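2024-03-11 09:14:02 INFO receiving multi-entity request
2024-03-11 09:14:02 INFO entity count = three
2024-03-11 09:14:03 INFO echoing inputs for audit
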Amino acid sequence: MFIKNCWYVAAWEHELLDERLLQRTILNESILFFRTSDGQVVALDNKCCHRHAPLSLGRREGDCIRCMYHGLKYDRHGRCVEIPGQTAIPRQMRVRSYPVVQSKRWVWIWMGDPAKADAALIPDTFSLQHPDWRMKPGYLQFQANHLLISDNLLDFSHLSYVHEGTLGGSLDIAQTRPTMERLERGVRVRREMSKITPAPYHQRLAQFSGPVDRWFVYDYLIPGVLLMESGVRPADLRLREREKTLNFHSCQALTPETATATHYFFASAHQSWLEEGATDHIYQSVLSAFAEDRRMIEAQQQLISSTAAADMLPLLGDAALGQFRLLMQRALEAENPQT
Amino acid sequence: MFIKNCWYVAAWEHELLDERLLQRTILNESILFFRTSDGQVVALDNKCCHRHAPLSLGRREGDCIRCMYHGLKYDRHGRCVEIPGQTAIPRQMRVRSYPVVQSKRWVWIWMGDPAKADAALIPDTFSLQHPDWRMKPGYLQFQANHLLISDNLLDFSHLSYVHEGTLGGSLDIAQTRPTMERLERGVRVRREMSKITPAPYHQRLAQFSGPVDRWFVYDYLIPGVLLMESGVRPADLRLREREKTLNFHSCQALTPETATATHYFFASAHQSWLEEGATDHIYQSVLSAFAEDRRMIEAQQQLISSTAAADMLPLLGDAALGQFRLLMQRALEAENPQT
Amino acid sequence: MFIKNCWYVAAWEHELLDERLLQRTILNESILFFRTSDGQVVALDNKCCHRHAPLSLGRREGDCIRCMYHGLKYDRHGRCVEIPGQTAIPRQMRVRSYPVVQSKRWVWIWMGDPAKADAALIPDTFSLQHPDWRMKPGYLQFQANHLLISDNLLDFSHLSYVHEGTLGGSLDIAQTRPTMERLERGVRVRREMSKITPAPYHQRLAQFSGPVDRWFVYDYLIPGVLLMESGVRPADLRLREREKTLNFHSCQALTPETATATHYFFASAHQSWLEEGATDHIYQSVLSAFAEDRRMIEAQQQLISSTAAADMLPLLGDAALGQFRLLMQRALEAENPQT
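2024-03-11 09:21:47 INFO inference complete, emitting structure
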């Protein structure tokens, strides 16, 4: 069971170039994406209404798609506009079309009631497309339920352990209690650490000569979107003139593929003044770190799937995680009142 | 659920040479086939009645088969005739034996009540073994439900799309409405096209100098057997003296392995006067085309299996397909009145 | 469903050297094993009580294990002794600890009520660790239910067929009826063969000049432990002075991993006076033979899993097998009275 009435990231804009057909499974639904000649992105149910052949094996014909099984042709709205050997086309011959919005490099899809698809609800991922920021786009697939990844993102104490040699580098992260603030559709988490050892990848970027102050402030929003400011600077006030403050802005989004597989879109943007090479260095550091997360979370998923169900016991640091799971549960129940 | 009281093609005769043991799963039942010294084919339940070890891991001893787990020996009728270390052999020590008939290169098996196994019900696949006809035997396994393949064979409009570059070659096939006639245990489909572009593989066989007339007439019978005459000749009457008419006869049979896997036996025979090399050329063309079908049908099966159930919407051209599904459904219900 | 209140072999002692972490699934439970500094073996539920991350991806810290997801640290009893960023540790923060006993090279685990874990119930596997005996330790994993392997071990008539060219070598094994004696928690099986052809691997060890007498006497105990004396010597009394008697003692234990996978621990010890090289020769012979068993039993499991359920029909030689299955069934019912 998934929340349907919300925007999910379906793709990076650059995944839909030219005549390309992109099939992606979202919330167990197989969806075909393509870009029309006017630059809009179309999302259609991938199942031909006739015999359920995949339209993703079909052929672009202008802004239409032809099923290459028996030749039914659909327009960008999912309406069948041609049936070979048949002149009348019944009105019900169509596939579902999903609302899609392109916003700052991401393609968002609305999986629920189209009448509720308000583009104003789309989070502002400004750092993906802004002259002051640079980033390299990331995508991974996790063989795990999306909530396990949300858990991960809502408790950065794992940086001290999972990412000991990459993003972490200091036990102080785990030792610092974050604060959590409730938002209407999510939580705001703030974690500030003072006079700690810099993370290996920060050190390589800025060559700090001593301990640093480091902070994370992020909103984590339904159904699994993270927007984070973070930074690091010398803890010693006298060094702050000579040594730089590093500021980052990260956008991350989880989109369930199935109950045990999740699409993970991410980017960690830095300010444009950083030297050439920093973008790739940061991208590679984050990618290595997310591979560490993936190893842990997929092992966690396998253990949960293969053994008897048991309660998870909360820690004091799990406030944000617990609050977000509660919000998700309520949103799900609001959509499914009988359940 | 499968129809049991009917003949299914189990193998090509040449698959059962010498002492060979052939295991094949049919309708979810694991069956052992072998040929006895008098040339008959035996089909036995592959599960030893003692501990359910597979007899297909056993050893031929004359016309008997010995289970190589604990040494039980069965005769060609499935009766246990030796138990090591035990002289009395209880009557119930036996495995099921299935009625088998060899007819014109195919080995047919009856999966239901043996008392109803009437060899007269076996379709006449004359072109598989006739001096006027030549063919090369074909076999493929599809990871798909047999009904999806029957659907495919009952609507040749797909030739224009799936087989655009092989068996098809002309949109006119899809544009032509076939006629359908009800038979007692199947349907007869007729599709005639006039003045169309020849299919690539026909062109290579006959070098037609212009448009052609092309026709298919086939019976499609429960549980999934196709017997088809087809042909192609110059559309221009004046050319018919100089250019040849190509006549084909095709036999095809679907045998469910499981609910999502199907054995597919086929041959496309041509008249013997065609030049040497034609047999192999036709075989390769058909094999390539069936690989195109397989790609589409397996993708269709995967899409159906992995997404929520939905109705398939019929087209006018689906009359034969719909009629055949109805006949199959009725046959199934007749065998399972309580269902 | 498995019997829980009994000792299962979990590992060979040498699998737990140094700081090694061993994850092994037993009765569908994922368990972490490691050896503490005082030489004891610890078995803990592998699921961290916090978010169910596997402790087997964790880090040894002295005799403790730290979960490398969020840093919880557990002592050898499974008690959480450190939570990063949190001083109070609630009593319920712990993972289950299983009773473990090391006895003569094997590590035994008790999967049920710890109060009933009586080490006196552990079978005496003396030949695994005794100056008069030599052996090489064996382990295989079978993709089959443990009862199918117990069946195999309770009916040695299969030696004549499955192991025709290895451990068997004579049809007389299958022809000889064993005797069976009921034990409190198992059965005692005795099979004595007179004047038979020696097995290939015996012949290579002892170069018998004629027929031999051969015998097996073994106890087969809940939940699947075999302790066997066996031997072979010249049948001709006059040869017994010149030719040696071979005596073996074999310990074998089955531990269910899941309903369709089983850990198989085994060793076949010989008397220490045998020439150098005999240990390895016997080990290789037994390993080859058990690979023959595995092929048959895994095929049997697949056939049973993929086809409709059917009764297995007993033979006269199945008395021990039937009696043992009955004992297992009763032990299971005694633990689960409502079932």
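2024-03-11 09:21:48 INFO post-check: The two ends of chain C are 10 Å apart (CA to CA).
2024-03-11 09:21:48 INFO post-check: Residues 126-335 of chain C form a domain with the Naphthalene 1,2-dioxygenase Alpha Subunit; Chain A, domain 1 fold (CATH 3.90.380.10).
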